[in-house]
């Protein structure tokens, strides 16, 4: 009877240790998820601010275009051509980072 009791106590102790380990891992995963969501929200806020800035500039261009259409379109195209490589690089870096974060959480980006 005593050996059975000892065996059960050891089993309980082992299960408690496993439970504590799982709880620590769950807390770490929650912190990581919270951080990833915070980073995502920050990125979205930055992108929204940038979009608002672009809208304001576009509106300004449209007002100028009303006065001299061809010159404004040429300048707009030149600006778009000069900025495109920067945007392409930024988009690729952001895409790769978010794809890696999804993988860290066990999600396949292609499934989304």
UniProtKB/TrEMBL annotation:
Taxonomy, superkingdom: Eukaryota
Keywords noted in UniProt: Cell projection, Cilium, Coiled coil, Cytoplasm, Cytoskeleton, Flagellum
Signal peptide: none
Ranges that cross the membrane: none
Localization (cell): Cytoplasm, Cytoskeleton, Flagellum axoneme
InterPro entries hit by this protein: DRC12-like (IPR033585)
Coiled coil: 5-46
Primary location: cytoplasm
Function per UniProt: Component of the nexin-dynein regulatory complex (N-DRC), a key regulator of ciliary/flagellar motility which maintains the alignment and integrity of the distal axoneme and regulates microtubule sliding in motile axonemes.
PANTHER family: COILED-COIL DOMAIN-CONTAINING PROTEIN 153
UniProt subunit comment: Component of the nexin-dynein regulatory complex (N-DRC).
Homology family: Belongs to the DRC12 family.
Protein name (database record): Dynein regulatory complex protein 12
Source organism: Ovis ammon polii
């Amino acid at each position: 009877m005593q050996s059975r009791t000892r065996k059960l106590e050891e089993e309980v102790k082992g299960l408690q240790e496993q439970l504590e380990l799982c709880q620590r891992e769950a807390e770490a995963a929650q912190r990581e998820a919270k951080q990833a969501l915070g980073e995502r929200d920050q990125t979205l806020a930055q992108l929204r601010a940038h979009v608002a800035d672009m809208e304001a500039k576009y509106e300004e261009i449209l007002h100028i275009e009303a006065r001299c259409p061809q010159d404004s379109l040429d300048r707009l195209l030149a600006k778009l051509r000069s900025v495109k490589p920067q945007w392409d690089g930024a988009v690729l870096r952001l895409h790769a980072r978010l794809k890696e974060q999804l993988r860290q959480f066990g999600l396949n980006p292609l499934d989304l």
